[in-house]
Structures are given as C-alpha cells and as structure tokens.
Amino acid sequence: MARPARLRKKGISTLVRETSLHPGDLICPLFVDENLRAPVSIPSLAGFSRHTVETAILEAEEVTELGIPAVIVFGVPRHKNETGSSALSGIVQDTISAIKANVPKATVIADTCLCEYTSHGHCGIVDEAGTIRRDPTLEMLQQVAASYARAGVDIVAPSGMIDGMVGAIRAKLDKEGFDAVALMPYAAKYCSSFYAPFRDAVDSGCAFGDRSAHQMDPANTNEAVREVRLDLEEGADIIMIKPALPYLDIIYRIKQTFNVPVAAYSVSGEYAMLRSAIDNGHLTDEAIYETLLSMKRAGADMIVTYFAKEAAKTLASQ
Ligand code: PBG
User: Fold this and answer.
1) Which of 63, 118, 56 is nearest to 87 (CA)?
2) Superfamily classification of domain 20-317
3) How high is the pLDDT of residue 91?
4) Which of 42, 133, 134, 197 is most exposed, with minimal Cβ within 10 Å?
5) Of 113, 184, 195, which is best to mutate to test ligand 1, by the most ligand atoms within 8 angstroms of its C-beta?
6) Alpha helices in 126-281 (DSSP H)
7) DSSP bridge partners of 108
8) Ligand 1 centre from 56 Cα, in Å?
9) Would you kindly state where each structural domain of the chain is located, as residue ranges?
10) What are 133-158's pLDDT values in tens digits?
11) Which DSSP helix (H) or strand (E) runs through 265?
C-alpha cells in the first residue's frame, strides 16, 4: 500500500526534502546615511539602523561571517534636488569601495534609483505634472550606475521600473569597460502598500502623486511576464520580483517560464508584519523559516530579506 508517511520519519525526511534554505541564499539590506556620525536605529524597521561608512564595514563583516554572501546598499544623501544628482557621488559610492577594500568576500549590490535623491521623491526626473521624463532619467541612471561600477560594485540593481533602464545601463557599463558588473533589475515591481516602512527608513516618500504610473498593478500577472521578457532581452542577469510573499504566484510563473536566476525581495512590510506578530507573541520565530522557504519553493534562488542575519543564525544552530 502506498504510504507517503513512511518517508516522514526523522532522518528519511531530510533525504527526501525538496527545497532547502541556506545562509548562502540570502541578501541583507544595508542602509547608509551621509548625515550621521554614528548609527541610528530605524523605528519602522525594528533591529535595523542607518549606518556610517565605518559601521557599514562592520555590518558587512558580520553578515559575511554568518555565511550571507551579499548586502544590498541603500543610501540617504545629505542633499536632495529636482534631478537627484546627489546620487552621482557620496555615501553609496564610499560605502561600496570601503566594503570592497575591507571585506573582499562580501558581494556588494547597489539599489539604483533616484527616489532617495530627488526632492519630490519620485524615481526619476519629472515634469510639472509629476510624470517621469524618460530620457533624462535614463541618462542620470546610466551615470549613477557607472559611478557605482567605478567604486567596485558587483551587481547594479535598478529599482525604478523605468522603461528601457536595463538596456540603457547595460550599454553604459559595457562602454565604460564594466562588462563584468551584473544587472539585477527589479523586473516585476508592484505598486505595493508593503513598502511603507522602507520609505520611512530612507525618507523616500513622494511629496506629490504616487508611483502607480511606473510600478505594476497588483492585479496583473501577464504583465510581469512581459516586463521580465523585456529586461532579459535588454541584458538582465538576475530577475528580481518584489514584494515576495503576496506575489509567490509571480515568482513561480517567472521561474517556470524563463528558468533564469530569480531573486525575491521580501520587503519591509513583510518584515514588519512577521516581526510584530513574533514580538507580540502571536507567532513563534519558526514562521521566519517557513516564510522564507515558501519563496524558495515558489522558485526564488535568492531572497533579499530583513530577516537575513536572524535566519542565518538559526540555520547555523540547527
Ligand atoms: C526604490 C526602492 C524601494 C524599495 C526598494 N527600493 C521603495 C519604493 O519603490 O517605493 C522598497 C523596499 C522595501 O520595502 O523593503 N529605491
């Protein structure tokens, strides 16, 4: 008689386990702030701080020692303006080169967008109506990506969902001799309410309007396939899908359709949701493993998660 339960015995169950989660699958977010002389904790992201370049190095060291291969860097600049030009040089470039010099084992990914650098908070250069002007925005993103590459970044992660951004950045990097720098665009990025804690963390909320004109409608699936196809044609190496938990179907479909490396970005709101449930005693921290595993099961090869350090510690102790 067929009895699936035979395989659920301790010892056998590990042999037949179909999906695994390792620290090596994880990417840890890292916030750096040009205005600081010492780290400051981020109220909306319990356990996270904005760092200085010096403490970012320590953070990268700790992360790599836990077996987590990569950090993704987000910057808070001293100055913002209409065009976001302070993204061209400053804390992010300094952090990239400092980590590469001091923690050579760490893979450094740079989130590449203008929303942290524009005074209005939009992800590009906008007209009076708040509509993104594509050409000047792409030109700025090309310059920013090249500056990250000069600082030694391993992976550029353009997150603005601007049409043509992947091809434009790939062309620029190749032209400047950075053909070894990989591209991990946020290929299917939904216009989601789950980004709220992050926007508090980096002060990147919109002064007017919202991002629905360039981020995807949560109701759409076929559109994600189209977005990903375009990004692959333009030279994407890894496809990022964001958020993760409410979009597991998208992760699954993209992996099934294209079979390319897929990154799931488990965003700040997903973290906040679980964090507060755990901190309030409604769930145990086992929910972290189960949640991250769901993303692996759906097809993600790697996960950007605010639980990276915590999950790596737990996995090491098992
Ligand atoms: C854009 C960017 C955002 C996030 C990552 N990159 C914010 C946005 O699109 O509004 C959100 C990440 C998170 O919520 O954890 N630079």
Assistant:
1) 118
2) Aldolase class I (3.20.20.70)
3) 97
4) 133
5) 195
6) 134-151, 165-175, 196-202, 222-233, 248-258, 268-279
7) 71
8) 19
9) 20-317
10) 999 999 999 999 999 999 999 999 99
11) strand 262-266
**208 against 220, higher pLDDT:** 220
- Please indicate whether residue 267, judged by its CB atom, sits closer than 6 Å to ligand 1: yes
Cα 312 from Cα 72, distance rounded (Å): 16
What's the pLDDT band for 200 if we cut at 50, 70, 90? Answer: confident
Length of the chain: 318
Residue 35, phi then psi, degrees to nearest 5: -90, 0
Q: Is the CB of 305 under 6 A from ligand 1?
A: no
- Which atom of ligand 1 is least distant from the CA of 306? 15
150 alpha carbon – ligand 1 mean position (Å): 24
Ligand 1 contact, 198 CB (< 6 A) = yes
Is residue 160 within 8 A of residue 121, CB to CB? The reply is no
**Which positions are annotated as active-site residues?**
189, 242
Ligand 1: does its nearest atom lie under 6 Å from the Cβ of 159? yes
Range in 130-134, 139-143, 249-253 the model is least confident about: 130-134
CA nearest to 240, candidates 159, 298, 122:
159
